[in-house]
Amino acid sequence: MVFLFHLQTYLLGKGVPGSGWAETGWLAEWMARGAFGVPLFFLMSGYLFGAGSGRLEGGAQVPIFYRARLRRLYPAYAVNICTLWLCGLLQNVGKNGWRDLGSSLAGVSYWFNGQPSRINGVAWSLEVELQFYLVAPWLAIALARLPARIRPWCLSGVGVLGLWLRDGAGFTDKTLLGNLHFFAGGWLLSVLGMKRETRGYCAPALWDAAALCFLLGIRWIPADASGNQWLLLGWSGVLVAAAFFGRLWRGLLSLPALWVAGAMSYTVYLYHYPILSFVGRLMAPVLQRVPPVFAAPVLGATTVVATALICSVLFHLFERPFFSRPGKSGVRAHSAAG
């Protein structure tokens, strides 16, 4: 989703001929809402953490959790930041500051610089993810001390607090506090979902149908959802619930092809925009010699192929060696990716 959003932004921002399909029409409306993939990812991360947080209740497993998360996420992230930093250094494009490198590697660019990483603009969401994994184990330990019936209400309160921090207190979407409601919503969904399965009244077909309706109705959610966080939270929650509780969506996401695509999604997310920019500059002379109506489709198709090929190599070099053994979840793709 995010890849399509950035492809649309690039095509329209650069004024590539033949980009009408990315400006108007149903495909353009879907692409404009591709940024919704980030809060969807946050909510799914909250779900997956909540589903496995029982192992952290005693506190002894917290260091093991930290090592596992850092081993899974940080090597590929650090290689990406250092590589793009060196490219900026060689090109002298203003991305070669040591402060930028240090704050990006530490995952605190927005805290120190008041803006996302200048080395990789999309890395802000990964910084938020790392910050969540830093504080979440201690929240899990605190929740474990409460009666089970109280925990969903506490998580609901955290979600409401997150909505207020975003819409009321003005925390941006580039911070953990500005996305707290998505993580809490996913965590709450895992708690409620485990109860539903225990009681045996989960209706897979209902979740499948709801997710299909929500996907088709995405065009009615404003592309700028900054003032409609509750709507985006509900939309994301239904899709995540269908991925875990629905029979159709869980089966689709378990297909080998989608598992491979999902496993590579972390690397694709890290590198897709630099690849898009590079391919755009490289193909600029070529696009001048093709009919204008074909320029944008040719650039889009070439970028997709180049991203798939380059990221598959980078994935096997810098990400796959740090995988844990894949689980048997119906959404193995996300489990592998984050």
List keywords for this structure.
single chain, 338 residues, mainly alpha, 16 helices, 0% strand, globular, disordered C terminus
Question: What's the quick description here?
Answer:
This protein has 338 residues and is mostly helical.
Describe, in plain words, how this protein is organized in 3D.
The chain has 338 residues and is an all-alpha fold. It has a domain at 37-245. Helix content is 71%, strand content 0%. It has 16 helices and no strands. Mean pLDDT is 84; it is low at 326-338.
Helix and strand content put the structural class at: mainly alpha
Approximate helicity band:
over 70%
Q: Name the shape in a single word.
A: globular
Q: Count of helices?
A: 16
Mean pLDDT: 84
Element order: H for helix, E for strand: HHHHHHHHHHHHHHHH
- How much beta, percentage-wise? under 5%
Ranges where pLDDT stays below 50 over 5 or more residues in a row are 326-338
- Total beta-strand segments: 0
Query: Largest sheet, described in full?
Result: none
Radius of gyration: 20 Å
Distance between the termini: 16 Å
